[in-house]
Amino acid sequence: MSSPAAEIFTAAQAVAAGTDFAELKIGDQGLFWNEFRPADGACRLWRWQDEQAHCLTPDGFSVRSRVYEYGGGSFCLGADGVVFVNEADQQIYTQALDGSAPRSITQGERRYGDVRWHDGEVVAVEETDTGRGVEHRLIALREGERSVLVEGADFYASPIFSNDGRRFAWIEWQRPAQPWTSTQLWCRERDQAGTWGPAVCVAGDSGVEESLQQPQFDSDGRLYCLSDRNGYWQPWGEVEGQWQPLSAPAADHAAAPWQLGASTWVVLGPEHYLASWFEEGFGVLALRHEDDQQTRYASAYSRFRSLAITDDHLYAIAASPVSPAAIIAIDRQRGEVRMLAGGSVALSAERISRPQPIRYPSGDGIAHGFFYPALSGPESRALVVFVHGGPTSGCYPVLDPRIQYWTQRGFAVADLNYRGSTGYGRAYRQALHLRWGEVDVEDACTAVAYLGGLGLIDPDKAFIRGGSAGGYTTLCALAFHDVFRAGASLYGVSDPVALAKATHKFEGDYLDWLIGDPECDAERYRQRTPLLHASRIKAPMIFFQGELDAVVVPDQTRAMLAALKANGIEAEGHFYADERHGFRKAENLAHALEEEWKFYCRVLARS
């Protein structure tokens, strides 16, 4: 066995171990998935065939959608191959499985996502920048001919046909709603002559705000969906002619739909479905039977995505506290788990810090997260608080090589699911409404006191870091509280008003929900804008920013950096010419990780 010292990740090794997967699909031609490798920043399709994984995507292509900026639903299975969105031009391509080159079936400036295949047609969400604004619609492509299926709403997701093609369903929502606050499920039916009837709202118009996602039809044409009407994203459906909840645990069966194309449940019939849900932040995978019994699978794993099922096997993208993302196959009868791709890490089990769930009082509520003890000795007892982006997103108790990078160097990590995160029900998620910059910050600061009170860390050696919305929480914590020794903002928001003016349509009204109307609530914005309170930040800061970022524009970071330097605060910035919102290139990810660690070490050395 190698020595512990030999197993300490370099920043480059930690980043290289960050291979991830998305959008697993299964069909007559096999099992397919999308794989991202930091080494080149590209996303490529893979096929499992003859007991081996084969890469399908040729050099020069990357399978990734940018619809709504966050993309998703970047590929589907067609009649004799795959259909995908190419990252560079955002056009739809088809690719046969005989080794031939991909062929474009769309041209122009439009972007596509959530691509689906049905009966010779490609169906997708289409995004068009008209110069006067961005428009979205659902379209179909058949033999090069484009037709509009639905238009008029601000946003669309999850277009899906019943097996017989008689019914067509989709999710839509209108500004200022977000897909995790208020959406509607719509459906159209066509008669024997093929004439479509009027669109009917199946769910989301009851007068009670609800978020719906992942609609599906069973083999008999009944429609189902996940709804949080009863407090959690749970399965609902057409049962005995009525729209009603299915038997399900009182838990979220999905995360917030930031990206298109999620699949965290698969309906098989009334009261019969495969699903994953969260229990105290840990993912569970189970097959729900019609006799109200359930069979649980793969208990060693703690997060499941992109579920698929056949008569013999279950498939998922899964991860555990000691295993990063992997493609797994599960024998339905024996429960045996087989890893097909991913899941390996160059660390022995004793060199992996395991997540310990934490649940602690904060303000007028309860906050959640995961604590990772330091591995390299208790002498420093330093802590790094990780604040996820979103902010309506979440963190999960799975092996993250970048967290292990810190714990191997004597830093404990608190990975927080502050109030407003997903995975703990609608009420918890809604706790951030008009309180961004308050409850998230409070939960981050209180975590330090809580862990310090347990004797797990030294509260005087706490650091905070976050990307995007997590960067905003970091800046607010440093501006309005004296808890942290230093902080790191990765493409973080320093000026919410500037963000609202410059950001894209999908998040165009998000700030109104998080803080309020920029004009009517101008004072609230002023109070929660870190850039206007830069003089109150006394702790050192380090910034990382992509020059191509369209969500948090680089000028925001430059303004904050300049303000701190003008006030005599130690601050440094690193800008990457080829990065967008969220870094993807291995060399940049490794550089940022190492520079952040060096920065904190310099701060600790002065104590």
Average pLDDT figure: 94
Strand content is 35-45%
Q: Provide the spatial order of strands within the biggest beta sheet.
A: 29-30-32-31-33-34-35-36
Rg is 24 Å
Classified by CATH, the class of the largest domain is Alpha Beta
Principal-axes geometry comes out as globular
Helix content: 10-25%
Q: In the residues, how many domains can be counted?
A: 2
CATH superfamily of the largest domain: Alpha/Beta hydrolase fold, catalytic domain
Q: Which segments are poorly predicted (pLDDT under 50) over 5 or more consecutive residues? A: 1-6
The name CATH uses for the topology of the largest domain is Rossmann fold
Architecture (CATH level 2) name of the largest domain: 3-Layer(aba) Sandwich
Instruction: Specify the structural class.
Output: alpha+beta
Q: How many β-strand stretches?
A: 36
Structural write-up:
- The chain is α+β, with helices and mostly antiparallel strands and 607 residues long.
- It has two domains: 21-264, Methylamine Dehydrogenase, Chain H, CATH 2.130.10.120; 354-605, 3-Layer(aba) Sandwich (Rossmann fold).
- Helices cover 16% and strands 37% of the residues.
- Helix 4 crosses helix 5.
- The longest helix has 20 residues, at 586-605.
- The chain starts with 10 loop residues before the first helix and ends with a helix.
- The model is unreliable at 1-6 (pLDDT under 50).
